[in-house]
């Protein structure tokens, strides 16, 4: 139901060779989608037919076109007749109330509410891949201001429904607001609120447009820059997502942009903001060497990854990765960011320029310290351990762990000591 499966490799401990299998790209939890097939497995006709039947029965009840039609009727209703079923996550037309009579409603849905669907829909919570973490207003506004200041007029919002909605809502209210957005997201509930040229049902793990060629064309048209209206892609994927799969999709979207641009920007890459935790820096740079990580801490309304910093402010590990020139990304001085003239970029106030590394080395906003033995800056809480021959927490156990590292997948170390993290 989520489009083409991805090919994975199952490795067992100690063995070099693994066995390859296909599994769902969007659901890594087998409870959500149990599709599984060995690469070399023969699939019987009966099983194929059963699968097709399963896929058919897992299609949304209404199509996007039908939802768009329903929306038109919905906005014609007087306030007192505008209801949203919280259980079915669906805008209801009066004739349907009966069927939902024992469900919870939201009543008197205003036009303002319709323009902020992310505040009506409950955030999906699937722990691994479909978790929805919505931008705090401050971060959303910061992103929008930055996009405008950089001169972009079109935003391809990939998994950023809240950014999309402030853009769409401003565009409909302020006459001289020139920015437009197209939302690509796997959450089909949004099709109830947006027309077919504002939202495409899309899977960013396999670059799959559920709406087929027509949806693909919508995206292509949007990326086409006429009268110099510059486009930027902004994406905030679920953090459990596979970087490799995401990067592959983003490259395809970038290629789409390039194809539409004629000779104009042949050597360039589509300007992009990829919002992701800082500990994925090495992984992202592996696929996009042109990207660099900004110090800006992206804040969310409902995020579990927060730690409380010394200042009492929540410290978010989420950053912006971009292929734009770092010095152009102006970070708010009133939030404590400053410009480092040597690095030519804005950094956190705690991020001191290290003379030896010749760079502002902190990743998490705290002041890092240089270790001469490791020949690099490390977290303030780390000490050099002579038996591990690297810096680590004082109370770490020197034995290596068996579990694979979250960042590079190799065994022998954990995410916090992943060698690939410092490579950048
Ligand atoms: N901070 C963003 C939301 C990020 S949460 C904002 O406030 O706008 C991650 C988003 O990615 C969610 O909207 C979720 O629906 C979407 N998503 C999750 N898996 C996806 C997939 N496989 N393909 C496309 N979008 C996906
Ligand atoms: Zn209902
Ligand atoms: Zn510096
Ligand atoms: Zn240093
Ligand atoms: Zn050290």
Automatic annotation (TrEMBL):
Main subcellular location: cytoplasm
GO cellular component, one term: cytoplasm
Domain GRF-type: 1-42
PROSITE patterns reported for this sequence: DHHC (PS50216), ZF_CCHC (PS50158), ZF_GRF (PS51999)
A Pfam family hit: N6-adenineMlase
Keywords: Cytoplasm, Metal-binding, Methyltransferase, S-adenosyl-L-methionine, Transferase, Zinc, Zinc-finger
Subcellular localization(s) per the UniProt record: Cytoplasm
Molecular function in Gene Ontology: nucleic acid binding; rRNA (adenine-N6-)-methyltransferase activity; zinc ion binding
Domain (CCHC-type): residue spans on this chain: 405-420
Stated name of the protein: ZCHC4 protein
Organism expressing this protein natively: Stercorarius parasiticus (Parasitic jaeger)
